[in-house]
Amino acid sequence: MDKVDCIFFQLSKAYQLGNRFLTQKVSELNLTSVQAMILGFLDQEDQVTSSELGKRAELDSATLTGILDRLEAAGFIERRGNPDDRRSIHIHLTKKGKTMAREAARVIAEANTDFLQILNENEKHDLLNIIEKLRHEITRS
Amino acid sequence: MDKVDCIFFQLSKAYQLGNRFLTQKVSELNLTSVQAMILGFLDQEDQVTSSELGKRAELDSATLTGILDRLEAAGFIERRGNPDDRRSIHIHLTKKGKTMAREAARVIAEANTDFLQILNENEKHDLLNIIEKLRHEITRS
DNA sequence: TGCAATTAACTTGTGTACGAGTATAACAGA
DNA sequence: TCTGTTATACTCGTACACAAGTTAATTGCA
Question: Any idea where the domains of chain A sit in the sequence?
Answer without folding.
Answer: 17-137
